[in-house]
Design brief:
This is AarF/ABC1/UbiB kinase family protein. Belongs to the protein kinase superfamily. ADCK protein kinase family. InterPro entries: ABC1_dom, Kinase-like_dom_sf, Prot_kinase_dom, UbiB_kinase. One of its GO terms (molecular function) is kinase activity. There is one protein chain. The protein is an alpha+beta fold and about 550 residues long. The protein has 19 helices and 11 strands. The chain has helices spanning about 5-30, 35-55, 60-65, 75-80, 95-105, 150-170, 180-195, 195-210, 245, 255-270, 305-320, 325-335, 340-350, 365-380, 385-405, 405-425, 430-440, 455-500, 505-530; strands at about 110-115, 120, 125-135, 140-145, 215, 230-235, 240, 275, 285, 290-295, 300-305. Strands 1, 2, 3, 4 and 6 form a 5-stranded antiparallel beta sheet that branches. Strands 5-10-9-7 form a 4-stranded mixed beta sheet, with helices on one face. Strands 8-11 form a two-stranded antiparallel ribbon. Helix 14 packs across helix 18. It is elongated, with a radius of gyration of 30 Å.
């Protein structure tokens, strides 16, 4: 690490946070425009990025995890950190050797014939070395970075101070919601990656899952040599799917490779169990024989049977326009915050699903992604971590598949894979969903989740409409109340005019009473008409 002193690490991070807080206070007091706030968050993101690169280590991992939480953080900030690479200089070999000797309880010669002292890969938590076992097999040894536990304690202690201060004293925008939950999620994810025995278990799970699947290779794991700080795996040579020159020389064509990738990842996304949450080009390789090789199971997500059931129910209810059931499914899946009003969400979903496919023909993907972020922040929605990882897995793999086949060919590649998977499920819900998708022009060319990225702009518009409806309803209620009071005044005037036999008071009071009664009934009708738009608690 460039900065090993705990005090220096903590002081640099805290000073960065203090400067950021001062800027936020100043912008809040100055009542800056939305454009100015966007520029500020870009500056803050740039400062945050530079600090991460200066300190390296765990903070880069934190930055990577924050970069996929567009549902919680401003767009300008996200843009500055979304391409962080978790690559840091390797540790001194002597430190790595001491870790191996301590964990194995003896000299390296007892387990290895040889080991290359230069790291093959080096990240913030672990480093990978190539070695040969006593039986002559070549292995990859993943070793936890020395002193990483101490660094983690320092960094998380610093983050907890920052989050506590921000939560109590800083006027953060709406995007920064549930800071404590975000901190807890970051801590859980990173602590999981620190325990290599958990990664070993994940690797064994995927081995079992794909043991009968042809064209897929998962490295063997040597459990007897693996510990919480060391993971020993079969060494696997492969080609990156982004290496076009090497891919073009394989006997397997690109369409077949895309088909195999979908066969590997589709069950992970749709079935209960673990899924690979970080399938970038360095973790998904292809052998010379065209087999898909999966590596690095440190970051995985898990979908429970209940999640899978409610996810299917969500899609089915949207397609069948059963919006109360859709909102119920969103609630059970953990997408809706406590303040979300079910009736309002039902109306938003109903209007959302009435969109015209022709509206989505022209799409600016970057603008659409920003619109999605804005929508998620504006609505009472917070994406659970497991689904953030699922989306990350889907979008990352989509990018790899799209580099192998065109959009026109993607549908022809996806359809047989999905239909083959469907036949094995014996699940009528998925059949219903697939045949509905087949009948829609929007899905003739499958463009995955990107086809839906235009919808957030419509949802934001619907939210504004909902606010205007509530404002208009309040006006109608006030008019109705005032006219009722005026009518009472007119009736009192009629009584007074009759009692005093004063014709002017009597005539004016009758006029006021008649006009106010007519107005009262008109606005009563309008209020009744608008009642269908209001929340249940207002009815």
């Amino acid at each position: 690490m460039k900065t090993k002193s705990k005090f220096k690490r903590m002081s640099k991070v805290l000073s960065m946070a203090f400067i950021i807080f001062i800027q936020i206070y100043w912008y809040k007091l100055s009542k800056k425009s939305a454009a100015d706030w966007e520029k500020l968050w870009e500056k803050i993101g740039g400062r945050f990025r530079r600090t991460l690169f200066d300190l390296e280590g765990l903070l880069i991992k934190v930055g990577q995890l924050l970069s996929i939480r567009a549902d919680l953080l401003p767009n300008g900030f996200i843009r500055q950190i979304q391409d962080l690479t978790d690559q840091v200089p390797p540790s001194e070999w002597e430190e790595i050797e001491r870790t191996l000797i301590t964990e194995w309880g003896g000299p390296l010669e007892n387990s290895l014939i040889s080991i290359e002292k230069k790291a093959v890969a080096s990240a913030s938590i672990g480093e990978v070395y190539k070695a040969i076992l006593k039986d002559g097999k070549t292995v990859a040894i993943k070793v936890q970075r020395p002193n990483i536990q101490s660094i983690i304690q320092t960094d998380f202690r610093t983050l907890s101070i920052i989050i506590w201060f921000a939560h109590h004293f800083v006027p953060l925008p709406k995007g920064f919601i549930n800071l404590k939950v975000l901190y807890k999620e970051l801590k859980e994810v990173i602590e999981r990656e620190l325990d290599f025995s958990l990664e070993k278990n994940s690797l064994l799970f995927f081995q079992e899952r794909f043991k009968d699947t042809e064209g897929v290779k998962i490295p063997d794991v040597y459990s007897e040599l693996s510990t919480e700080k060391i993971l020993v795996m079969e060494w696997m040579n492969g080609i990156k799917l982004t290496d076009e020159a090497s891919i073009s020389q394989l006997e397997t064509n690109k369409s077949e490779l895309a088909k195999r990738l979908i066969e590997v990842f589709l069950p992970q996304w749709l079935e209960p169990g673990m899924f690979h949450a970080d399938p970038h080009s360095g973790n998904v390789l292809v052998s010379k024989e065209g087999e898909i090789i999966l590596l690095d199971f440190g970051m995985v997500g898990e979908i429970s049977k209940k999640d899978a059931t409610y996810f299917q129910a969500l899609i089915e209810s949207l397609l069948s326009k059963n919006y109360p059931k859709a909102v119920e499914s969103l609630t059970y899946l953990g997408f809706l915050l406590p303040e979300a009003d079910p009736r309002t969400m039902e109306r938003l979903l109903a209007e959302l699903m009435s969109f015209q496919p022709a509206d989505l023909k022209e799409m600016d993907l970057i603008a659409l992604k920003l619109e999605l972020n804005d929508m998620i922040q504006a609505l009472p929605i917070q994406v659970p971590t497991r689904f953030v990882f699922l989306g990350r897995s889907f979008i990352t793999m989509e990018g790899i598949v799209m580099s192998l086949v065109s959009e026109d060919d993607l549908h022809h590649v996806l359809k047989p894979v999905f239909m083959n998977w469907l036949r094995k499920q014996e699940n009528n819900k998925w059949s219903f969903i697939w045949f509905w998708l087949q009948s829609q022009p929007l899905f003739k060319t499958v463009h995955s989740f990107n086809e839906f990225l235009k919808l957030p702009q419509k949802l934001e518009s619907l939210k504004e409409i909902e606010q205007r409806r509530q404002f208009q309803f309040t006006i109608y209620e006030n008019y109705k109340k005032n006219l009722f009071q005026l009518n009472l005044l007119g009736i009192l005037g009629i009584g007074l005019g009759t009692f005093t036999n004063h014709q002017l008071i009597l005539q004016l009071s009758i006029g006021v009473s008649v006009i106010s009664s007519i107005g009262y009934f008109i606005y009563s009708y309008k209020v009744k008409k608008w009642m269908k738009y209001m929340h249940e608690q207002r009815r």
